[in-house]
Amino acid sequence: MRIILLSFLSCFAFVSQAQQGLEGIIVEKYYVSDEADSLDADENFAVYPLGIGSVTYRVYVDLLPGYKFIQMFGSPEHPLSISTTTSFYNDPNYGFAVYQGTSLNNTKKNTTLIDSYLTVGGVASGLMGVLKTEDTDGSIGNLQGILANTDPSVGAPITGDNGIDGLMPGAPILPNTLGVAGALDVFDQTAGSEFLIDNGTIAALGGVEGVTPSNHVLVGQFTTDGVLSFKLNIQIGTPVDGESQIYVAENPGPNEIQLESLIYTSPEIVSVKEITPNVSSNQFVVYPNPSEGIISIRNNTGAFEKCNISIIDMAGKQVLVSNGNIQGATIDASQLSSGIYTVRIDTADHSEVQRLIIK
Q1: What are phi and psi of 184, to 5 degrees?
Q2: Helix, strand, or coil here: 132?
Q3: Domain map of the chain by residue range?
Q4: Which of 53, 154, 221, 286 is most buried, with most CB under 10 Å away?
Q5: pTM for this model (two decimals)
Q6: Is the model's pLDDT at 215 over the cut of 90?
Q7: What is the pLDDT of residue 270?
Q8: pLDDT band, very low/low/confident/very high, at 111 (cuts 50, 70, 90)
């Protein structure tokens, strides 16, 4: 594998030019997950849960006009690492570890749009990743009505009437990957916290440019409820055919340029929480679930407790409220449309959130 990687690198002449084509790495805070997103992930049996408050980061290579992204690589002298203090979230249905031409329709489903993966610009069939501040054509939306959080820390939402999803028309290519197979597991429904390679590459054969004049190329998207860190090494092609530049995070050798922004650590995420699974260890049981509209709530302690019950839809709107004493309470929710809801039960000393499916 070492020979394969070196032969790929040798396709381009390494030159030292006065002008550096790689201006830096841009990390965009793309989305912050909310309760509806977390419930959807739980409903679809995500291996690692999507904590409420998890952040989706996008990482872009910022190139001068006329320069092309060639590859992101790791070598014995320059290991490449992308890590988190927890785990990376992956959509259990249509997620992927490396961009693979997912259809537009599947990109709209569940949490695919905030999946964790590596890429050489592509996000969906016919669509390239761009900064939300450069997106001019709105949002593709979401078929489950989720990914609708309007957290002000990420600017515009990524769905809805005013949504901006950071997708623009283009011609994505599939990444060429060498020496990364096992390391990719952390982006594919497998527990783990670090993608690490010291003899591999994620490459764009022939090079790729951004689809906006700023020439930003998306190289990865990562969703985590922990701290994101990376050390990257990048090769780019210059406007002169056959010439390239190599940028490394640390310990530059001959014809290599060290760039400070290739090393990054995100701020620590605070107040991340998870939806409490609907299991027998909870104090309350909500049944039947799924339900056709009439639901019962049982207190596993056997006590009669004064409580407040709220049913919340996927948009975060409270659609039904009931107050009283609970032991074997029955609630008529038949007026609600089919879909996924949150049941919140609050007593004097306990709060519990459970998922409810109305058929």
Answers
A1: -70, -10
A2: helix
A3: 2-265, 284-358
A4: 221
A5: 0.75
A6: yes
A7: 59
A8: very high
